[in-house]
Amino acid sequence: MNKYELALVVSAKVDDEVRNATVEKAKAYITNFGGTITNVDDWGKKRLAYEIQKMTEGYYYFIQFDAESETPGELEQSLRILDNVLRYLCVKQEA
What we know:
Elements: E1 2-11, H1 16-32, E2 36-52, E3 55-67, H2 71-80, E4 85-92
Antiparallel strand pairs: 1-3, 1-4, 2-3
């Protein structure tokens, strides 16, 4: 098992319920693909470095998880089609 971190930027224009559901869906994808979530950091609403889809702010989440090497690719394919996710990045952490 490898250690990974998923950075997730969710749209600031959606309600709290929708935002939380989006994050829960991302966490469900991780567990469905055989990963184990170890930590979730909610950084809250931050200003974006540049405008994305005419938005200047987003909610930042960092999810650390343990998974096999195939999981990040499958996860990114699923995150790509989520409506409220502005950006995502999954990186392998050094052990």
